[in-house]
Design a protein that fits this description.
One of its GO terms (molecular function) is hydrogenase (acceptor) activity. By secondary structure, the chain is of the alpha/beta class. The chain has three domains: 54 residues, no CATH class; 175 residues, NADH:ubiquinone oxidoreductase-like, 20kDa subunit (Rossmann fold, 3-Layer(aba) Sandwich); 88 residues, Cytochrome-c3 Hydrogenase, Chain A, domain 2, CATH 4.10.480. The chain is 43% helix and 8% strand. The strands form three sheets. A five-stranded parallel sheet has the order 2-1-3-7-9, with helices on both faces. The protein binds iron/sulfur cluster (SF4) (2 copies). One iron/sulfur cluster binds next to helix 13.
Length: 395
């Protein structure tokens, strides 16, 4: 875990490490081969440099990394990836692949590194099992394991069986994560349990970290933006290092600020201009959705900056509030989704036309401080919900 105070030191040491690695692995020949591959796939050198610049900005890296990213992408040696599916809907894979046409990240990812993917592979049955076993053995200690979906743990994990051997999800996840160099949880189900873990959670579904007790990088969201998944993966593939994380093991570059901080409707929140019911004048004018249940002030994610489907739109842009999908237990703690959360302690500007002189929730922002507040906010809601639930149950 890295706090924002350590970031500068982190970047300095990362720069040194990257330069050492590039000295060892980079050569003019590898660059020429990579340029040829780009050309065959319809990309010019200019497209590639624009992409390297975009990725540097997206990962919130200092500009000095731009040239290093361009060089690192050309290196032939890649970390293999094994992608497993547990209890989920495959929406995260869909989001990951949601590009109109293959981009440079997809080229690096699919053509160079993807070794095993439960649902994208053409093969099935025993051939797949054999391929998985071989991949684990061949790349022992060198591969990245990506898990999508929650892991049912109740009764020995019998509520999820995968593959021709009838292995439980729990067994399979343990077996594959054990020999991985890095384990990534893509999506809220893999990170925190998601809908499978919603009350009363009959299968004992858990996120990977809780189910297996292992170190993890969480990339939550339902689904996560492809920018967050691709960016985190590329950070590891290109630099051989995980990015700095918050207290919930989420990459700070993606989850270090709240939806509310960069929301296009924020000026209306500050001015006390709210949608009061669906389809009213405020809704037509694009006013703030807080009173319609928006959980953007409680949610750490970057949807308000990058949107979805290559920046086309996002939930708040389409007129519905954020439901807090990248926070732990959001199905329980953020519900009801279309009503403000009474327990959040958020004070809103009292009336239309009153500018918020001091924004109590907007002042504690980025970095680890923000992450800590996120946990605190989520924690207080969870506690409040839990006490309500036990109150109801004892009634
Ligand atoms: S409450 Fe929601 S809609 Fe309103 S400004 Fe914040 S994030 Fe945007
Ligand atoms: S806007 Fe909120 S609910 Fe929607 S994807 Fe982003 S974090 Fe999840």
């Amino acid at each position: 875990m890295t706090s924002s105070k350590d970031l500068q030191g982190y970047y300095e040491s990362l720069l040194k490490e990257v330069d050492e690695k590039l000295n060892d692995l980079y050569s003019k020949e590898t660059e020429e081969e990579f340029n040829q591959k780009l050309k065959e796939n319809g990309f010019s050198r200019r497209d590639f440099l624009k992409w390297a610049s975009f990725l540097t900005a997206t990962l919130m890296l200092p500009p000095a990394f731009e040239s290093r990213i361009a060089k690192a992408a050309a290196i032939k040696e890649r970390t293999p990836i094994i992608w497993l599916h547990m209890a989920e809907c495959t929406g995260c894979s869909e989001s990951f692949l949601r590009t109109r046409e293959p981009d440079i990240a997809t080229l690096i990812f699919e053509q160079v590194s993807l070794t095993y993917h439960d649902t994208l592979m053409m093969a099935s049955g025993e051939r797949v099992e054999k391929h998985l076993d071989e991949a684990i053995q061949r790349y022992k200690g060198k591969y990245i394991c990506i898990i999508e979906g929650a892991i049912p743990t109740k009764d020995g994990g019998i509520y999820l069986r995968v593959g021709s051997k009838g292995e439980t999800g729990l067994e399979r996840a343990k077996r594959v994560t054990k020999d991985a160099k890095v384990n990534l949880a893509f999506g809220t189900c893999a990170a925190f349990g998601g809908v499978q873990a919603a009350h009363p959670n009959p299968t004992g579904a858990k996120g990977v970290h809780d189910a297996l007790g292992i170190e993890i990088v969480n990339v939550p969201g339902c689904p996560p933006n492809s920018v967050n998944m691709v960016g985190t993966l590329l950070h590891i593939l290109l630099f051989d290092k995980i990015p700095p994380l918050d207290l919930l093991y989420r990459p700070l570059w993606a989850y270090g600020s709240r939806i509310h901080d960069y929301c296009e409707r924020r000026a209306h929140f500050d001015a006390g201009e709210f949608v009061e019911e669906w389809g009213d004048e405020g809704a037509k004018k694009g006013w703030c959705l807080y009173k319609m249940g928006c959980k953007g002030p409680l949610t750490y994610n970057n949807c308000s900056r990058y949107r979805f489907n290559q920046g086309t739109n996002w939930p708040i842009g389409a007129g519905h509030g954020c439901i807090g999908c990248s926070e732990p237990n959001f199905w329980d703690t953020m519900a009801p989704f279309e009503e403000p959360n009474d327990e959040s302690g958020i004070r809103i500007p009292a009336s239309k036309g009153v500018e918020a002189a001091s924004d109590e929730i907007g002042s504690f922002l980025a970095g680890a401080t923000a992450a800590a507040v996120g946990i605190h906010a989520a924690g207080s809601i969870i506690r409040a919900k839990a006490s309500k639930t036990s109150q109801k149950e004892s009634e």
